[in-house]
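Progress narrative, work stream C.
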Amino acid sequence: MKFKALIVEDEMLSRNFLSNLVREFCPQLELAGIVSNVADAVRFINTQSPQLVFLDIEMQTGTGFDVLKQTHHHDFHVIFTTAFDHYAIQAIKFSAVDYLLKPINLEELEQAVDKAIKQITGRQEDNRLELLLKNLHRPAGDDFCISLSTSEGVDFIPLSIIIRLEAKGPYTTFYLKDGRQIMVSRNLKEYEISLQEHGFFRIHNSYMINLKDVKRWVKTDGGYAVMSDDAMVAISPKKKDEFMALMTKRMV
């Protein structure tokens, strides 16, 4: 089975280079279309329903985000392409959407395509594009949001209201400032990768905390942090020095 792909790229050399790579090295894909502007990309996606879109961020007619805003649905996977470290890369990373820096590396292309195909064949609920658009258009001063999928639906939670995370086997429980507890079926390690750049710290094998919500740091009894919800979270001996350095930096 082949998966229908679309390339959206307005620069001819980059367009030809990527299309040649896809045709020669990505046999899982059927390159169904190559377009060079926002309007044609929106039209193709709305009428042809590709499963994977290679989407240039900056085009003369607009941006890849304009394409996403104008399409009727988001049930396709996106791999962004960009020639430089674009201002939106942080939002793209946080939303777990893949991107490739130009000139495109063959190994990175193959890895991104393999990952996309696993997502497509897994038939799992995918709200990454909605999360990306939400993070890109958040009001000035607002924090990023994270999507938490449960059996009841998907919650988009601002990072600023997360106090701590607790691992329970393959599950992770989020403790929020409004008193809610949300359990999701993903392990803590997956969240550690995306949250550690946003003021969160893996203080223990079973816990990750928002450093801004540490109310008290107790050095006795092995060491623990008292959080804003009065929870006492043990500090792993291996993490103690790093935690002390981070808290000292916060107090400066």
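Work stream C, second folded protein:
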Amino acid sequence: MGPPEVSRVVVVTGGSRGMGREMCRAFAAQGDRVVVASRKAEACEELAARLREEHGVEAIGVGCHVGRWADCDALVDRVLADFGRVDVLVNNAGMSPLYPSLTEITEELWDKVIAVNLKGAFRLGARCGEHMAANGGGSIVNVSSIAAVAPNPRELPYATAKAGLNALTVGLAHAYAPHVRVNTVMPGPFRTDIADAWPPEMLERFESEEVPLRRIGEADEVVGAVLYLTGPTASFTTGATIKIDGGLTWST
């Protein structure tokens, strides 16, 4: 009998709340070592402590503003220093602030949305992908949005960034093949912190015939696709996109 298999090291950005939190819990439940990363270090550390207590796995929380290149590098350096490897990266961090009109979007808002949703994913994907390719392989999942393929004026900077993220998935999948797989999950409307800012009429539309399943998604409903794409049964899947939108994009 050979030595016991070493559990994977999984990094989840935007990991302290919403969909990211549910992903961290799911990875820990199956025995993975988890790095919870988001802008607020304290929230990351609190979740990491719960994962250690509830699942008996190694878990750390790391403060990281993914819109800052130096923070992305510091996150990867910390993970490699603590664990010596990265096996799975989930680029989940995102933001979609409201604005009065397209002409009133400030340069600061535009730059921040592109940085958090796209620039950080590129830098982390390149750093982790290069490491994975040189050390036995791995998996990257980018969390996009149906806004990337069905943009609207209410979230155009966000949609533009997510469209870029979809392109990034394909580019990274080619760059780090054959040992690193890179895929996208593309959620529709989900009950997360972003949804807290939605006006009531938007939620009413999603709960009517606009969404065939007549509701918005719950945070834990994206987890299955992420576990699949990062697991062994997706071994021939790379450069792919899985929509998780209650049928919204199809219906429109």
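The radius of gyration is 18 Å. No further action is required on this item.
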